[in-house]
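User: I need a structural model of Alkylphosphonate utilization protein from Dyella thiooxydans for a docking pre-check later this week. Nothing fancy, just the predicted structure tokens so I can convert them on my end. Input:
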Amino acid sequence: MSALPPCPQCQSAYTYEDRGLLVCPECGHEWTVGEPGAETDARVVRDANGNVLNDGDTVTVIKDLKVKGSSLVVKVGTKVKNIRLVEGDHDIDCRIDGIGPMSLKSEFVRKA
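Assistant: Understood. Predicted structure tokens for Alkylphosphonate utilization protein:
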């Protein structure tokens, strides 16, 4: 029996090889044998200046942003504390004082 690595997502020991890919029958994850970063699929989120953003950072809005479905506007220079990074087009979840919970795109903020 060969010693194949466990699944990087669910840690299942029942992985098998199929046409050059390693496959997990429990969660369906597929990866290559020598794939760098197979253990972590962490994506890097950068602000408008190219700085790497992390969960819990404080950012500043660099452009007036209209709030969809409302007459409210997030003004330039608004500080947003304790951001949370998420998957998707709007990759920052946060709470803005006076407006409430929002999703922002990282291209419209800079690290404070």
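Before docking, keep this in mind: Residues 15 and 24 are 5 Å apart (CA to CA).
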